[in-house]
Give the backbone structure.
Amino acid sequence: MFADLSGKVALVTGGGQGLGLGIVLKLAGQGADIAIGDISDETAAAAAKQVEAMGRKAYTANMNVTDKDSIIAAVEKITTEAGQIDILVNNAGVAGAPGSTGTGFRDIDWDFTWQVNVKGLADVTEAVLPQMRARQAGKIINISSVAAKAAKYQTAYYATTKMAVVAYTQALAREFALANINVNAVAPGRIWTQFHKDWMAEREALGDEAVAGKDKFDVFMGALKEVIPMGRPQEPSDIGALVTFLASEEARNITGQTIQCDGGQVMV
Ligand SMILES: NC(=O)c1ccc[n+]([C@@H]2O[C@H](COP(=O)([O-])OP(=O)(O)OC[C@H]3O[C@@H](n4cnc5c(N)ncnc54)[C@H](O)[C@@H]3O)[C@@H](O)[C@H]2O)c1
């Protein structure tokens, strides 16, 4: 089977819903056992049930990527229960701090978004790296965003953090190449997840006329038709398919890359 992940254990942060769930299901479909580290026990448990229904093992651990103790405890729990972590998918991320306007330049916007999207991602990676180094094998896939290379209106904090993910991916890939650890990033385009629904709700609460009183899915679709050459949104399964390839041995000579999955929005 192409991209056979049988016998591998994949940890997906934020794997309970949205893109994370799409990644979880694709990895499980290729034979991987799955560990979900999520701040929400409820969605993690529901996702684990879906994995088990596919005949794979599922492990869950409460993990808040902004809290180092919680990361270390979760990685220890998963490693003890599953034996090891072969694949790490750093997916947990936020659009901004609650109530963010995107351009208000409040400290909390920079601090919170950075803490989750960059520092949290790095802290999870550092918690998992020692076992990958000891085995001289591992796959790390970081979720960036189309916003890194094609920032949208009012995405200053977010776009900055997602470009930082690109730089972190490159630095880590170089550092651990001889340890046989592949480090890559995926830059998704636009997916209709809770992430976008919450962002629109915040825009409406702040009185944004482009959103207020309108059907939010229509606004989402209308906006993306203007910017996505292929004219359609991406699905969590699209992102899961690319992550699965990068996690496979077929991708063993790909490292330090950020690969777009965005319907053609960025073509460099
Ligand atoms: N939705 C999009 O259009 C889009 C586009 C590009 C990139 N992304 C990126 O994809 C990733 C997932 O986005 P999504 O749309 O699925 O979001 P989502 O809000 O639907 O899901 C995020 C998941 O992460 C978990 N999470 C949130 N904060 C956490 C924390 N501190 N610790 C651990 N888990 C936490 C949530 O419980 C949830 O399961 C993010 O990194 C986001 O930046 C999303």
The chain has one domain: 9-189+235-261.
